[in-house]
Design brief:
The structure holds two protein chains of two kinds. Chain A has helices spanning 3-14, 30-42, 62-73, 78-88, 102-108, 110-120, 136-145, 159-168, 192-202, 216-223, 233-241, 246-265; strands at residues 18-24, 48-51, 96-99, 124-126, 148-150, 152-153, 173-176, 207-210, 228-231. Chain A contains twelve helices and nine strands. The radius of gyration of chain A is 17 Å and the shape is globular. By secondary structure, chain A is an alpha/beta fold. Chain A has a domain at 3-150 and 228-257: Alpha-Beta Barrel (TIM Barrel). In chain A, helix 5 (102-108) packs across helix 6 and helix 6 (110-120) packs parallel to helix 7. In chain A, strand 7, helix 9 (192-202) and strand 8 form a beta-alpha-beta unit. By secondary structure, chain B is of the alpha/beta class. Chain B is 44% helix and 18% strand. Chain B is built from 16 helices and 14 strands. In chain B, strands 3-4-14-9-10-13 form a six-stranded mixed sheet, sandwiched between helices. Chain B has a four-stranded parallel sheet with strand order 7-6-5-8, with helices on both faces. Chain B is globular and about 55 Å long. The chains are: A alpha/beta, B alpha/beta. Chains A and B meet through helix 3, helix 5 and strand 6 of A and helix 1, helix 8 and strand 11 of B.
C-alpha cells in the first residue's frame, strides 16, 4: 500500500479528515522549502502538494503565479525538486504529490519523469492541464512507476463525466471547489455540495477539496463533507510576505497551519 | 484533413486544458459541428463576409514586383483590403456568430499586435456583445493606436503584466478569465492554436482565403499555382491559404517564421524551424522551451509573430513534409516591407513583410512560367511609425 492510501486508511479508522497544504518548491528557496515541509508536518499536515513552478501556469491565480515566477527566477528546476524530495525522505514519510503542468513532464519523457519521481520518494502527480481524455500515456507511466495520477473534477463537470474521471483517478479525486483559478476566497462555493454528493454516489475514492480555501472556518466546513482539504494560495502568500526572514516565516506558518489542521481534524 | 475526436492532428493538437474548461470545449465543438451543417449559419456567415468584410478579396498580379525579381509570376492575395486591414476579421465574424448561436453575450480575446483584438472589438461592436481584450503591457505600449481603436469601439482593454507581458501572457490571462466566467463567456481565439476545437474552427473560418485564391487563380491562369507563401506566427493566415490546397500535392506550401535577430542568437520566434515538441496553451505542437520544459520568450520585430508556439496542424505539416518552414530575420523583414512598398505601392504589415522577404529570395530562382501566391495577410499602416524609427537615417 502506498503512502497516500495508507494515510487515508489510517485517517478513516479514526474518522479524521486530511489536511493537505500546497507550496511551490523553490519559493523562496529550495533550502527553505525543505524546512517548510517539516514545519507543515509538525503543524499537523497529513499530506503535501508540492508545486513544480512553470512559466505559464494557466490554472493559477496571482499568488501561485508570483511564487512560480519567483522560484524560476531563483533557479528551481525539476531535477533539484526531485533531489529535495529525496532529502526530505530522510526525515519524513509524509505523502507527497507533485503538482506540475504537463510540459515539464512531457519534455523529460513521461516514463522517465515518473520513474525519477518515484525513486525520489514522490507518491502522486497532479497535472492540471491533462484532462482524462489526454491522461492515457501519463496514467500508464505513473502506474508502472507506482505513482498515483490524481485527476481533477470541477463545478462545471457534468455527472457522467465525473464518473469517468473518478474511475480513472488514483489515490483520491481532486475536487476543484470554484469555477475559476487557484486563489484565496472568503466563503465556501455553493457549487461544492452537489459536486460531492454526485461523486459519493460514483466512487469510493477519498474526495479532497482545493481552490479557494483560505481560512480555518472554511476548511472546517469543507471537512464536514469531504475527506480532505487543500490550502494553497493563503499559505503561499504568507511565505511570500516573510520571504526574507525564514525563521519568522516558519513560526508564522506553523501557527497558521496548526489552526487549519485543527479545523480540519476537529470538524465534527 | 479532419482531426480525430479529441482534436489530434497526427501526434499534435489535442485538449490539454483544465477540467473546468473541458465541458465548455466539448459544448463548443458540438455547437460548431451543428453550425457547420446548418445552411442558414453558413449563409449568414457568407453574407457578413461579403457585406461587411468586403469579400472576395482580390487576387492581384504583382507585375512590377515580378519583373523586379525576374522569376516566377507573383500573385498577392489581398487580405489587407478586408475591413480592419487583415485576415483576422474572417475568423472574428465566424466565431462571434457562433458565440451568439450559443447564447453567450460576452466575448473575450487575447491580442499581440492588436489586429485580432481590433477584429474582435469590431465585430463585438457590430453585434452588440460585451467585449474584453487581454493584451500584454509591453504590447500595449508598442501598439498604442490599436489600443485606442479597440476602446473607441467599446471594448475594454485589460493590461497583462504577468510573465513577459506579451502575447503568450495575454493568452494565459484570457484562459484564466474563461476558467472563471466560462458559463456566460465566449473565448474568441485568434489563431489556429489552443485546445481543440479552436485550431479546426479558426482554420475553417480562414479557409475562405484559400478557397477564393484557388478559384481566382484557376480563372486567371487556368491552372493551380506552384507555390503558396505565407507568414506563420500562430499560423492562421497560412493555414487559411494552405488548407483548401491540401489534396493538391503538386502545390508546394512555404510557411515563413520570424528569425528575429537570427536563429543562432536564440532571440527568435521560429518554433517550427528551431523549436522542440511540447505541450503549450492546450495543444501539442512545436515550441520554444528550455532544457527543463519551461517556455522561453519569443522575439520578433513583428508583434504578431512574437509567439513561442504554433498551431498543431502546422506541426503535422512540418513532420509529414506537406509544408516547408523557413525563417526571415527582423532586418530582412524590413527590406521586404520596403520592397513591396516601393515596387507595388502596397505597404504590408510587418508580419506579412516576412513572407515578402522570403519571396524575394525564392522567386528569382524559379522560372517565369511558374506561379507563386503570397498571402498579403495585413496592411502595414500600424507598423509605419515603428519602421520609421528603425529607419531613422532612411
Amino acid at each position: 500500500m502506498n503512502r497516500i492510501d495508507a494515510t487515508f486508511e489510517k485517517l478513516r479508522q479514526t474518522g479524521r479528515k486530511a489536511f493537505m497544504p500546497y507550496i511551490t518548491a523553490g519559493h523562496p528557496s529550495l533550502a527553505v522549502t525543505r524546512e517548510i515541509i517539516l514545519a507543515l508536518e509538525s503543524a499537523g499536515a497529513d499530506m503535501l502538494e508540492l508545486g513544480i513552478p512553470f512559466s505559464d501556469p494557466i490554472a493559477d491565480g496571482p499568488s501561485i503565479q508570483r511564487s512560480s515566477e519567483w522560484a524560476l527566477q531563483h533557479g528551481t528546476t525539476p531535477d533539484k525538486i526531485l533531489q529535495l524530495v529525496a532529502d526530505v525522505r530522510q526525515q519524513s514519510q509524509i505523502p507527497i504529490s507533485l503538482m506540475s503542468y504537463y510540459n515539464p513532464i512531457f519534455y523529460r519523457g513521461v516514463s522517465s519523469f515518473c520513474q525519477d519521481a518515484a525513486r525520489a520518494g514522490v507518491d502522486g502527480l497532479i497535472v492540471p492541464d491533462v484532462p482524462v481524455e489526454e491522461s492515457g500515456p501519463l496514467a500508464e507511466a505513473a502506474q508502472v512507476a507506482g505513482l498515483d495520477l490524481i485527476l481533477l473534477v470541477a463545478p462545471t463537470t457534468p455527472p457522467d463525466r465525473m464518473q469517468r474521471i473518478a474511475t480513472a483517478s488514483r489515490g483520491f479525486v481532486y475536487c476543484v471547489s470554484v469555477t475559476g483559478v487557484t486563489g484565496a476566497r472568503d466563503s465556501v462555493s455553493e457549487d461544492l455540495a452537489p459536486m460531492l454528493t454526485t461523486l459519493r454516489q460514483t466512487t469510493d475514492l477519498p474526495l479532497v477539496v482545493g481552490f479557494g480555501v483560505s481560512n480555518p472556518v472554511q476548511a472546517g466546513l469543507i471537512a464536514q463533507r469531504a475527506d480532505g482539504v487543500i490550502v494553497g494560495s493563503a499559505i503561499v502568500d504568507r511565505i511570500h510576505v516573510c520571504r526574507d526572514d525564514p525563521q519568522a516565516m516558519l513560526v508564522e506558518l506553523h501557527a497558521f497551519t496548526s489552526d487549519l489542521s485543527a479545523a480540519v481534524h476537529d470538524h465534527a | 484533413m479532419r482531426p480525430d475526436k479529441q482534436g489530434h492532428f497526427g501526434e499534435f493538437g489535442g485538449q490539454f486544458a483544465p477540467e473546468t474548461l473541458m465541458p465548455a470545449l466539448i459544448e463548443l465543438e458540438t455547437a460548431y459541428r451543428e453550425a457547420q451543417t446548418d445552411p442558414e449559419f453558413q449563409r449568414v456567415f457568407q453574407e457578413y463576409l461579403r457585406g461587411y468584410v468586403g469579400r472576395p478579396s482580390l487576387l492581384y498580379f504583382a507585375e512590377r514586383l515580378t519583373k523586379e525579381l525576374g522569376g516566377a509570376k507573383i500573385y498577392l492575395k489581398r487580405e489587407d483590403l478586408n475591413h480592419t486591414g487583415a485576415h483576422k476579421i474572417n475568423n472574428a465574424i465566424g466565431q462571434s456568430l457562433l458565440a451568439q448561436r450559443m447564447g453567450k453575450k460576452r466575448v473575450i480575446a487575447e491580442t499581440g499586435a492588436g489586429q485580432h483584438g481590433v477584429a474582435t472589438a469590431t465585430v463585438a461592436a457590430m453585434f452588440n456583445l460585451e467585449c474584453e481584450i487581454f493584451m500584454g503591457e509591453e504590447d500595449i505600449e508598442r501598439q498604442a493606436l490599436n489600443v485606442f481603436r479597440m476602446r473607441l469601439m467599446g471594448a475594454s482593454v485589460r493590461p497583462v503584466s504577468s510573465g513577459t507581458g506579451t502575447l503568450k501572457d495575454a493568452i494565459n490571462a484570457s484562459f484564466r478569465d474563461w476558467v472563471t466566467n466560462v458559463r456566460n463567456t465566449y473565448l474568441l481565439v485568434g489563431s489556429v492554436v489552443s485546445a481543440h476545437p479552436y485550431p479546426m474552427i479558426v482554420r475553417d473560418f480562414q479557409a475562405i482565403i484559400g478557397e477564393e485564391a484557388k478559384a481566382q487563380i484557376l480563372e486567371r491562369e487556368g491552372r493551380l499555382p506552384d507555390v503558396l507563401v505565407a507568414c506563420v506566427g500562430g499560423g492562421s493566415n497560412a493555414m487559411g491559404l494552405f488548407h483548401p490546397f491540401y489534396e493538391d500535392r503538386q502545390v508546394h506550401f512555404i510557411g515563413v517564421e520570424a528569425a528575429g535577430k537570427g536563429i543562432e542568437t536564440g532571440q527568435h520566434a521560429a518554433s517550427l524551424s528551431a523549436g522542440g515538441i511540447g505541450v503549450f496553451h492546450g495543444a501539442k505542437c512545436h515550441l520554444l522551451q528550455d532544457a527543463d520544459g519551461q517556455i522561453t520568450p519569443a522575439h520578433s520585430i513583428s508583434a504578431g509573430l512574437d509567439y513561442p508556439g504554433v498551431g498543431p496542424e502546422h506541426s503535422l505539416y512540418k513532420v509529414t513534409g506537406r509544408a516547408e518552414y523557413v525563417s526571415i530575420t527582423d532586418a530582412e523583414a524590413i527590406e521586404g516591407f520596403q520592397l513591396l512598398s516601393r515596387t507595388e505601392g502596397i505597404i504590408p504589415a510587418l508580419e506579412t513583410a516576412h513572407a515578402i522577404a522570403y519571396l524575394a529570395k525564392m522567386a528569382p530562382q524559379m522560372d517565369q512560367q511558374q506561379i507563386i501566391i503570397v498571402n498579403l495577410s495585413g496592411r502595414g499602416d500600424k507598423d509605419v511609425q515603428s519602421i520609421a524609427n528603425v529607419l531613422e537615417n532612411f
